[in-house]
Automatic annotation (TrEMBL):
Record's catalysed reaction(s): 4-hydroxyphenylacetate + H(+) = 4-methylphenol + CO2; 3,4-dihydroxyphenylacetate + H(+) = 4-methylcatechol + CO2
Enzyme Commission (EC) number: 4.1.1.83
Protein name: 4-hydroxyphenylacetate decarboxylase small subunit
EC category name: lyase
Length: 88
């Protein structure tokens, strides 16, 4: 799991964000991007029970609506009425 997938991650730009708990700057990917022990899954498509069949780029299928459609794992789901936490 990565910081960017954590509910405590606050996005700053396309490379980095801030941890709301530690106030540290954390990278989206690469070195130092792995989550810490305080990780809690954020409501993103990749953490939703309706997300399936992701490819190596994290692009998968949303099965939460009447018509299936593609989505990507890091897509924010704060406003999705069909979000169902898959874990956490
Ligand atoms: S709680 Fe841990 S995993 Fe979550 S954003 Fe902060 S440092 Fe990253
Ligand atoms: S139901 Fe919503 S949160 Fe879940 S995968 Fe589909 S679009 Fe994403």
């Amino acid at each position: 799991m990565k910081h960017v997938e954590c509910i405590n991650y606050i996005n700053l730009d396309c490379e980095k964000g801030m941890c709301a708990l530690s106030k540290q700057i954390v990278p989206i990917d690469g070195n130092g991007s792995d989550a810490c022990g305080h990780f809690q899954p954020a409501p993103v498509c990749g953490n939703c029970a309706c997300f399936a069949d992701a490819d190596k780029h994290g692009i998968g299928t949303c099965k939460g609506f009447e018509k299936e459609n593609w989505t990507y794992a890091k897509c924010g789901a704060f406003c999705c009425e069909h979000y169902k936490a898959a874990r956490g």
